[in-house]
Amino acid sequence: MSDAGATALGRRHGGAIAVAIWLLALAIAFVIALRTRYVADLSAFLPSAPTPEQAILLEQLKSGSASRLILVGIEGGDAATRNAASQRLGTRLRAMPHFASVDNGDTAPWQQAGRFVLAHRYALSPAVDAARFQVEGLRAAIDETLSLLGTPAGALIKPILLRDPTGETVRIAEALTPAQAPKVEDGVWVSRSAPRAVLVLTTRADGADLDGQQQALNAVRNAFGEQAQRPGANVAAEAALRLELSGAGSFGVAARERIKSEVERLAVWGGAIVVVLLWLAFASLRALAVALLPVATGVLAGIAAVSLGFGQVHGMTLGFGTTLIGEAVDYAIYYLIQARASAGAATPGSDTSHAGRWLRESWPTVRLGLVTSLIGFAALVFAGFPGLAQLGVFSIAGLLAAATTTRFVFPLIAPDGAPGAGLRQQLGRLMRRAAAALPRLRWGVVALAAAATVVLLVLPSPWRGQLSDLSPIDAVDLERDAALRADVGAPDAGTLVALSAADEAGALAAAEAVGARLDTLVKEGVLQGYASPARFLPSPATQRARLAALPDAATLSARLAEATEGGPLPATRLGAFVDEVQAARKDPPFDRRALEGTPLATAVDALLLRGDASRPWRALLNLQAAPGRTVEAERVRAAIAGIPGAQLVSIKPELDALYARYLRQAEWQAALGAAAVVALLALTLRNARRLVGVLLPIAAATVVVLAGLAASGAALGILHLVGLLLTVAIGSNYALFFDHLRRAPEVDEDTLASLLLANLTTVISFALLASSPIPVLRAVGAAVAPGALLCLVFSASFLGRPEPVGGRGKIAA
Amino acid sequence: MRQLTPDRRGVGRRLAALLAGLVAAAATSAAGFDLTQLTTQLARVKSGEATFTEKRRVEMLDRTLESSGRLVFRAPDTFIRETLKPRREKLEVTGNVLTMSLGERSRTLQLDSAPEAAVIVEAVRGTLTGNRESLERLFDANVSGSAERWSLDLVPRDLRLRGQVASVRVSGRDATVREVQVLLADGDRSTMTIEPLPGAAP
């Protein structure tokens, strides 16, 4: 056996090992993909949090009480029918296990809470102190209570007057009643701005638990549907009623549906288009099957890598993954066509085999293109959004796997490229004609790039994207949500003071300390009010202090006699009062557990977050700005200064700041990524002229795309930036190929066709993304699809050969 | 007393309503003075100040509760009731916002979120400002007497509210309100006697 034969055998042997490794890796990736958890929640659209404060904020947005709200509107029909329907729907939903609370203005469910408040009034009332139980305090308190008699409020007070003559229950109710309450009609909440009855539900399911949210939403829809069918229903009147649902949960569920159907759409179209293109290129089933191998390998590798790295795969990642189809198939196209193109001059099994020749001549260019693409996608990994990081990891793993499959497996399973010619010859001829014509337009391209630069300089900066631009929620849905929120006075993401403490008692005590400072701001008119968990559940220390202020029976009786002297309510009738005060003195303080089963528990849970070994207890105090004003952060900060663990969190500015920070970071990453691409090209080309030749078309394409986006009025953000970097990374592939062809003596039509096909698959897969209703995908697609196409056209203009190239040739060494 | 069957009771109620309607119509036509004329007459006065004394009879209490203070109204929608005795207390309504102050404490609520409070406020404010539209929206309104000496009987239209506030009777002379009587559903009643301050007639 000759040396050459042994080498060939060794290579063959190595190839078999490569195929074995490939099959094993495929099997492993397949198993991982099968066991992966696929999600489609909204958290991918929120940035990851660099600081603990922002972590609280994001945690609240993802699963805080606001994320568990469902806002319900009943519209259509006449007011009486709507209001009666709200009443019935409320009663029905309260009996369901899905909801922690159902509020529609109906006071019936509060009776239980009323009993609790009455029983614990001396621990709960902010008015209780020693002075209140002196003669003067008793007189003033009783007078105040009596002044409510003979008014509509009196009907509520009379039944408990003899037990609670100092009106503690009234004081507690006052403290718990928010200043912003919905309009009431027929005993239920209605909108002030539209003919609509409104309800506010709190689900038991966490906001991030989309299945639980979906069940709760379905429960509301079913209950609403059922009540119209109850016996005795006025079918005609109730048929006119419509149900509107909104809230974080409904957004999450709707977005999940949208992402799911979008992933399917992208996968089906992306797959179909690539198959059609491949058929055009080869018109051979075998070639088609082989060409799809790197694609399938890449997709599986991408899913497996994301699954291992993140513990789950987001639906959006899969949607974006369709662009991987478009890119990964390029490697197959290059190989299958170009390896075949070199047929004829080859001896099977030798260094001059078709595959060997391709590996020697074309692979370095493909590899360089691969590395520049990887640099582009690496920017996604570090963009600071979990969703984008997944896209980056998916693409990097997928491209590496696809290229590796092409490089190591194809030479063995398709040593001579692929059979079948399809319409390749026509495509190649078209491309040749274009390549010959385009260089004449070189100055046109330069002029276009110059015009684009002028446009960019003249227009105001389009970089005004916001975090909300990333959200896949419809503007119409957001409007409806805002309207329902305004109806019920549900606080939007606003300003809050967050506190942390080691235990429940500590968190409540801190909330009271902050509350005392905020009271001053309320008095000064800086704030209209605030919500505090300590109103519903005072700290044990405060409860003890209040109960300790209660006098013993003998003292109280004596003072009471003096205080009621000559008044309309003689002390002799207040025996129950004296007895209950006496009993209250012995009460131990109650904690959160005691509220279980009352509406107070839901109210407290929204503001008091249970801690555990890994995180502290937290209290949240929502601030309401004075009417027509915004919360003055500086005043609040100054007021709460010195209270340990207390910090002011303004949700909207905080999120905007977070986004701005990531945008700045992304700018740096994009600049670094672009610099890395240039450095890599410089290192490889080792020739300033060639480097400039490669970079010019890419730069021109980037500027033209950016100007186009700016002129279209789009607000550009992180994703457009990422898209531009991808344009540079992917676009450089075409420039490199033209650079490579320019130095080859002759260019055959097949190679030109492979370049056109590879570009088309990429452009089409990103164009699909650009048509997506999901903003994240749309932004990337809108930048890359035109960018990649322009890179090809401009590369042909700058690097193509103006003189006609005759006949079918070969790429020679 | 003989129990009426539901059906008969229904007929009885309808008859009573019909009779009441006839009587009211007769009274109105006899006097020739109706709600439109009354509210037009009242609406001419754009602002005013008065003192008041109020007596409340509450069934649970041994004696009548008395209070006194000052009333202010300004068109279109501001109404202030400031109690000076026995203790200072202030209730101020502007538009839909009701503010209650007592010493250092003050709380605000939206009138339309507390319909039972809105009934009382609108009965007085609507009459003082001559807001016929508002009165007719909330009440079955009945005017009796003459332009010089009239009474306006207001019964909440909403049955639920009628379970709290049975009726409000406002009476006055010419363009001034002189008395407001509130009858609550549980039988408690209050009577506010109003004395216009010289130079300003509410």
Q: How are the secondary structure elements laid out?
A:
The complex is a heterodimer of chains A (813) and B (202).
Chain A lengths: L2 H33 L2 E2 L12 H12 L5 E7 L3 H16 L4 E5 L6 H10 L1 H4 L10 H13 L6 H4 L10 H9 L6 E3 L2 E3 L5 E8 L6 H18 L7 H5 L2 E5 L1 H35 L2 H26 L2 E2 H27 L12 H8 L1 H19 L4 H28 L10 H14 L4 H17 L16 H14 L6 E7 L2 H20 L3 E5 L1 H4 L3 H9 L4 H12 L10 H11 L13 H9 E2 L7 E9 L7 H8 L6 E4 H35 L2 H24 L6 H26 L5 H22 L4 H25 L14
Parallel strand pairs in A: 1-8
Antiparallel strand pairs in A: 2-6, 2-7, 3-6, 4-5, 9-12, 9-13, 10-12, 11-12
Chain B lengths: L5 H26 L3 H9 L3 E11 L7 E10 L3 E8 L3 E6 L2 E6 L2 E6 L4 H14 L3 H7 E7 L3 E8 L2 H4 L2 E9 L2 E9 L4 E8 L6
Helix pairs in contact in B: 3-4
What does this structure look like?
The complex is a heterodimer of chains A (813) and B (202). With 813 residues, chain A is of the alpha+beta class. Chain A has a domain at 3-35 and 251-470 and 655-799: Up-down Bundle (Multidrug efflux transporter AcrB transmembrane fold). Chain A is 64% helix and 8% strand. In chain A, strands 9, 10, 11, 12 and 13 form a 5-stranded antiparallel beta sheet that branches. In chain A, strands 3-6-2-7 form a 4-stranded antiparallel beta sheet, with helices on both faces. In chain A, a hairpin with a 2-residue loop joins β4 and β5 (188-190). Chain B has 202 residues and is α+β, with helices and mostly antiparallel strands. Chain B folds into 2 domains: 1-31; 33-196, Clam (outer membrane lipoprotein receptor (LolB), chain A). Chain B has 5 helices and 11 strands. Chain B has helices at residues 6-31, 35-43, 115-128, 132-138, 159-162, and strands spanning 47-57, 65-74, 78-85, 89-94, 97-102, 105-110, 139-145, 149-156, 165-173, 176-184, 189-196. Chain B has an 11-stranded antiparallel beta sheet with strand order 6-5-4-3-2-1-11-10-9-8-7. The model of chain B is unreliable at 1-12 and 21-30 (pLDDT under 50). Chains A and B meet through α6 and β4 of A and β6 and α3 of B.
